[in-house]
Amino acid sequence: MTVLKTSLRNFFAHKGRMALSAVAVLLSVGFVCGTLVFTDTVDTTFDKLFAVTAADVTVQPHGADKDGSSPQDGAAPLTVPASAVRTLAAQPGFKSAFGEASSTSVTLVDPRTDKNIGPTSGAPTIAGNWTVEPTAAVKITSGHAPDAADQAVLDSDTAANAHLRIGDQVKVMTGFGTFTHTITGIATFQTTNPGAALVFLDTATAQHELLGTAGAFTSINAYGDGTRTDDRLKAEALTALGHGYQAQTKAQTAAANKSDVASFLDVMKDAMLGFAGIALLVGVFLIVNTFSMLVAQRTREIGLMRALGASRRQVNRSVMIEALLLGVIGSALGIAGGVGIAVGLMQLMNGMGMHLNTGDLTVKWTTPVTGAAVGVLVTLFAAYLPARRAAKVSPMAALRESSGGSATTRSTVLRSVVGLIVTAAGAAGLVAAAVAKQAGQGSALLGLGVVVTLIGFIIIGPLLAAGVVRVLGTVTLSPFGPVGRMAQRNALRNPRRTGATAAALMIGLALVSCLSVVGSSMVASASDQIDKSVGADFIIQPHTGAFTPDIVKAVKSTPGLGHVTEYKELPTTLTLPDGVRTKQDLTATDPTYATDLRVPTVSGEVENAYAHGGITVGQTFADAHHLATGDTITVAFPGGRSAALRLYAITSAKTAFDQGAMYLGLDTARKYVPARLMPQDVMLFATSANSGDTATAYGALKAAVHDYPQVQVSDQADYKKQLHDQMSQLLNLVYGLLALAIVVAVLGVVNTLALSVVERTREIGLMRAIGLSRRQLRRMIRLESVVIALFGAVIGLGLGMAWGIAAEKLLALKGLGDLSIPWATVGSVFVGAAVVGLLAALAPALRASRMNVLGAIATD
Asked: Which stretches make up the ABC3 transporter permease C-terminal domain (predicted)?
């Protein structure tokens, strides 16, 4: 009980100093709990959606995706006849059956602006026939259902976003043409809107515009009368319909849909938890520093406790109880904050078009338990070494010390030697990764090298501080005269503390530096690859929806173009010379693609594959299956026809574009694939007829596709800018998440300075007594903070650049071999670190300057 009382007294006596450490725990636990609550809420929301909207049995043609479309992109969807719907409805045990004619290869356009009004968040635009099913996801809340060919119903969210009302018109662009409809009804989601845009047509119109055929559906939704289980209904449906069909029960449909959502959420969850882990790691340094300094400042008090009979175990337990209190309070606040973070993420998703209701907020019992466990265990782990150090202090040694002691020379030397060995081992791992010949092996070595060098730098932090801070102080603090020199000496006074404080900042900045080098190198390499490999002047791609024959026709009829190359992807099954069968997508293009994209080869020529009706494969695939030019590969095309094609070229793996693609000519594909199963183009390539004047052809091409808002036309400069913008967006997102770790690191600097000011109270009083002004004192503490922050920036940026350079050497195996150091970013981060150090010192410097001089001198 005495130990508990002592711990509580010490904890609340230093509550201000504990607060910053508690914030570190709060932020980290909050991020963990927020991620878990958000993903659990999305799971709950979609579980409700899928449970409500799935039919008892869903029947599709064999080989169709779960949404009923053909597995190959843009091809005519696989369908079931209307007679199959009647057959199911007449079966015993079935109450009703509805045919669904739907497509996701659709673009919705507002005729008033000729702009795409579909979702921009990556969710699909779905068009289908209007039916009144028991599990309908939407209900008409205004107007009426479509009952004529020129009528349509729009979902309320899309209508509101596009400011469309009943009586307005909307264009529906499909693979079979562009159709204009008048909005006769607005439908409202009965559950969560997953972000999709929905448009409904009458059944005959949907079959004509979406499927290109009458009397057919993409799937059948059947409902039982309650006399049979769903599994039995499924079996009887397949028996009644015969061969050529596949079916799923309600549970299977919901599970299949949920798996797609789960795959996205898992990636998101892993990424966010990864950043939370980084913040926790940084928080460990803050907590270690806090307890180390508190223990050092209470050395005399601990000595008195030991002299009065307190055992080592009791001293250790006292410090650990303080850590437990810190972990419990920080975790409790973090769990509450996590719910707020989850709500914020939900609002962010709502802003992107996905409507998540806070009424579905899901806080499983495992979430607070996980958060509390993480926060408490990490805090106890961080406090263990300071507690152990406190317990080892002997009573007489403690009574002889005026303030905290320092590490012995022997332990410092041993730590430095171990740190140098670990760092050297990590550096060897990075070098091995940089010279690796295989990406898989190199990635493993890179990960090992990153972890080991990080550990090594943390261990040798005090050694680096002694040298780097001295150099930084000489360069940056000399202009400030004696105040600058005192700030430098204060930073050097306890290298272990300075190293630990800077290490927290180092981790975040090392990751920023590494990712900056990788991102900049990827953009530079891709730009160089475009210059070297891309011979086409223009690249035409669809933003969303189908790349329809009308679009291809409009592009090909554009004046001023030299040639237009079509680019399609065919799902096939290959039978290799050794008898192995494997499913692969083949790229079918016009022969001009060989000049549009100059793909390097390790054997043979791509042009020969086009000229002689053969095939090419990528180097990785060829090596894995021991293929060589001249081999024969049997290709099973969509529609059932097969052909034995000769291998004419093996393309290099060291290319940034179309790496591993397998080419064949469009003429060859058309010879074996029925026209109705030939997919639409994935993209088009074009060149200007006048190589000296691409601007005129560019303008004409833009004008030719003006009526197709789903189409994007890019010249090479545009394409480079897209790559740069995409990488910048990704890096900005990562930097935003890493800011959490940097905020925790800044709190560590603030805490270290605050505790250091308390530790040097008598010294500060003496300096004030001999003439140091308040202004000079504030400047000294600010400069000390700046030099510590700059030290963390120097080692962080240096370490991160080493990681980035090693990673770039691995990317060279994928054709991205141009190293680019973003010096502007590096410089900005370095200057930003100085600003961070300056801001972190404001409160401690102000507190120090307000000390009473006589009271400070009298402090023991």
From this structure: 275-395, 737-853
Q: Would you state the structure tokens that stand for residue 460, as one six-digit string?
A: 């040798």
Closest C-alpha among 193, 121, 137, 120 to residue 355: 193
Structure-block tokens of residue 123: 């969710």
| Cα torsion angle, 464, 467, 471, 477, sign | positive
List beta partners, residue 199: 127, 154
Structure token pair of residue 353 = 């078009």
Long-range interactions of 600-605: CB distance < 8 A, separation 24+: 600/533, 600/651, 600/652, 600/654, 600/655, 601/649, 601/650, 601/651, 601/652, 602/650, 602/651, 602/652, 603/628, 603/629, 603/649, 603/650, 604/629, 604/647, 604/648, 604/649, 604/650, 605/648, 605/649
User: What is the predicted pLDDT for the residue at 843?
Assistant: 83
Contacts 24+ apart (CB under 8 A), 260-268: 261/42, 261/43, 261/46, 262/43, 265/39, 265/42, 265/43, 268/39
User: Residue 532: what pLDDT?
Assistant: 81
Strands of 18-93, DSSP E = 57-61, 80-81
One-letter amino acid at 295 equals V
Half-sphere exposure at residue 333, Cβ-oriented, CA atoms within 13 angstroms = 15
Query: Residue 188 region, left (φ>0) first, then alpha (ψ -120 to 50), else beta?
Result: beta
Over the stretch 791-845, which tens digit does the pLDDT of each residue have? 999 999 999 999 999 998 888 887 777 888 899 888 988 998 888 888 888 888 8
Say if CB 77 and CB 70 are below 8 A apart: yes
Q: Is there a contact between 839 and 556 (Cβ–Cβ < 8 Å)?
A: no
Task: Give the distance, in angstroms, between the CA of residue 326 and the centroid of all CA atoms in the same chain.
Answer: 32
User: Which stretches within 106-229 are classed as H helix?
Assistant: 156-162, 203-206
Q: Is the pTM of this model over 0.85?
A: no
Instruction: Quote the pLDDT of residue 71.
Output: 41
How far the first Cα of the chain sits from its last, in Å, is: 29
Smallest CA-to-CA distance from 783 within 473, 497, 464, 465 is with: 473
Q: Find the Cα–Cα–Cα–Cα dihedral 846, 848, 853, 857, rounded to 10°.
A: 170
All residue ranges of the chain with pLDDT < 50 are 67-74, 401-406
